[in-house]
Amino acid sequence: MTSSKLDRLKYLLQMKKFADSEWEKRGLNPSSSELCEQLENNFDNCLNSLLKLVEEQATNKQLKTTLSQNLKSLNKAELDTEEKEFVCDYYYEIAKIIEVDFKNELNNWLYGNVLNSLFKISELLKGKEKIVETLSQSCTKCNSKLETFILEKDETIPESDFFIVRCKSCREYNLIDKGPKIKRLKFGEYELTEQLSRKDYDLDGAIIRLKQIQHFRK
To answer: Which InterPro entries does this chain map to (predicted)?
Structure first.
C-alpha cells in the first residue's frame, strides 16, 4: 500500500497541475502565469513533504497536519472562486491518496465555519451538473476508483462503445464497459485513450486490444 501511495504522489508531483490544458479541462481560462507558478510550487512543496513522511511511515495524524499546514499557507484572498475550487480538488485528491479525511478542513477553508454545515465537498468535486448514476470499478494495478458519472440516459440507446482508459493515479490502462442507455457522461479519475466501437469489437476483442496497449505503450 505504501508503494502505491508513493507512486501516486510522485505522479502528481511530476505533472503540471496548473498547465493551461488543466484549466481548459475544467472549461476555464488559465489564470496568470505568476499565480499558476505560485500554486504549482506550493503543491510541489506539499507533495515532497508528504513523500518523505510516507517513506518514513508517518502516522495519518502527521500526514493530515502537513496537508493542513500547506492549505493554510495559501492566501485565499488572492484567489477567485473557480481558482479556490480548483485548489480544493487537488487537496481532496491528495487526501484520498494518503487516506486521511480532509473534507471538513476543505469546507472550512472554502466556505468558512458558518457555511461549512450547509455544503458538502462532494458537491463541489462532482460539479453542478446532476449525476443520475455513478459507475465504479477499481484500477487493476493500484485499486483506485475509476468512476464514470452518467449525466443523462436515453432508453433508445443500445450498448455503448468500450473505453480503454488510463488511470490518473498510476497510469495503468484499464477497460471500461459502460452498458446501454448512456447519452451523456463525465469522466472521473481517468483519461480516455481509445474508444472501441461495438461494430468492430466484442468483449473478448476489447480485452485483446487492452493487452496490446498495455504491452506496447509502457
So the answer is: DUF4844, DUF4844_sf
Pair 10, 148: CB distance under 8 Å = no
- Please state the domain count of the chain: 2
Other C-beta atoms within 10 Å of 118: how many?
8
Closest CA to 119 of 133, 135, 108: 108
Among 210, 142, 153, 217, which Cα is nearest to 184's? 153
**Identity of the amino acid at 128:** K
Q: Within 167-202, where are the H helices?
A: none
- What CATH number is given to the structural domain containing 35? 1.20.1480.40
Spatial separation of the C-alpha atoms in residues 167 and 146, rounded to whole Å: 7
Q: Are residues 118 and 18 in the same domain?
A: yes
The 10s digit of each residue's pLDDT in 58-90 is: 999 999 999 999 999 998 888 988 898 899 989
Sheet-wide strand order for 145-153: 133-138, 145-153, 182-187
Examine the pLDDT at 218 and tell me if it is beyond 70.
Answer: no
Question: What are the grid coordinates assigned to 24, written together?
Answer: 481548459
| Neighbouring residues of 20: CB distance < 8 A, sequence distance ≥ 6 | 30
Cell numbers at 171, concatenated: 497510469
Q: pLDDT tier at 2 (50, 70, 90 boundaries)? A: low
Residue 17 DSSP label:
T
